Amino acid sequence: MTESLRDAAPEPLAVLIVGAGFSGLAMAIRCKQAGIGPLRVIEKADSIGGTWYDNTYPGAACDIPSHLYSLSFAPKADWSRMYAPQGEILAYLRETAERHGLMPLTQLGTTFQGATWDEAASVWHVETDRGPITAQAIVSGMGGLHHPAYPDIPGRDSFAGPAFHTAAWDHAVSLEGKRVGVIGTGASAIQVVPELAKVAGHLTLFQRTPPWIMPKNDHAIAERAKARYRRLPLARRLERARLFWLHEVRALLGFTKVSKLTGQAEGLARRHLAKAVRDKDLRAKLTPTYRLGCKRVLISDDYYPALQRPNVTLETGPIARITEAGVVTGDGRAHDLDVIVYATGFDVTATFARMDLVGRGGLRLKDAWADSMGAYQGITVAGFPNYFMLLGPNTGLGHNSVVSMIEVQVQHVLDCLKALRKGTRAIEVRPEAQARFLDRIRARLTDSIWQAGGCRSWYLDSQGRNATLWPDSVMAYRRSARRARMADYRLG
Description:
Layout: H1 3-6, E1 13-18, H2 22-34, E2 39-42, H3 51-54, H4 86-99, E3 106-107, E4 112-118, E5 123-128, E6 131-140, E7 163-165, E8 179-183, H5 187-199, E9 202-206, E10 213-214, H6 223-231, H7 233-252, H8 260-276, H9 280-285, E11 298-299, H10 303-307, E12 312-315, E13 319-322, E14 326-329, E15 334-336, E16 339-342, H11 348-353, E17 356-358, H12 365-368, E18 387-389, H13 402-421, E19 427-429, H14 431-445, H15 449-452, H16 474-481, E20 489-491
């Protein structure tokens, strides 16, 4: 703990923010600006940055344009590229935290282990691996993308060589000239495969399902454009607005459902594939059989070319088992490997299920969500006063910048925290308000592209229900959630 934290105001804190990625930093900035305190940010890693600190695999970058994937109230005029690489995003977050004076309020290397609501005192007693903390309110900025998911493949632990997930990249392992196997074809694979293909002696990509891929059209941002954005903030805001509406129109035209737009987008993706891959057999292996949007739509200009390099093999048959020497596919062929890379995404459900959160009357969050995860506006849960989530259930996006959703949620939470400042000891969403909200969301999801698109994705839980994505536009979410409706809350 830093010296400034030792001298901080005595407990209880007004608000404890868990996580120092985009969500936690945005919440902390807004709390400071509103004069809400004392506050503290705790972060399990030894640096701020969240997913942009954890994910350091080769080729890691954002698939949302830089000027849109940044906080509107903490702009950056000189992004280097249309789609910023991981290191630049991490540097932006660190600079933002420094500029807004957040580092003295941030306790790194501190893991949130659980919390119990004290009804008599109207505070949360929080357990961390660095000792207890008491706070009137908790804001979770942990998000759902920090528990790597590993495939359930027989013998996975028997492999003798290095094996690691893209989200926990082992930079001590040299891949130069090695036989590398990549399992998975999601967002991280699309970025890492072209980079590994440049250095590996041979790369084998094990594909279960081909993704839909659109052209990325990435490019360096010209120096004259950077100068204009620095000199004319309005120009930067107009560029951000242009990018926002370019992405938003996808939802407004029906991107969240099977529609005419779906077919048109599939045509564009097929043309991208046909232009990049001339070999008919390879092209057939890379053509999805489900509707575009059912799984995350990816963008890349170098993935298809990488698969056609002489040192790259695409395997589309099922994996039967992993052995000490490598991978055995369903046809009995053994693929000897030196290194295995898992590009298999994240276990979103586990992120919340592992939290030992005990609310009013001893209710545990995992029991409240025994049937399915759900929260009012994705932010608050009945039975858990003064507890707020950023990027909670059903607030992820498949079409636009999730930072826009974070900013809406931060404003909603601020309204609730301001109510606590006015003498209210506890604020809790009414069960009936939560039920109405979840009924609307689940009705919208029934015929959504994620349910009707003919695929199985990480968006769905074990029961096949989507507790991950928002089934509408960002503007619709802003109208629904930007201000906290006090009639939907119980104040006490």
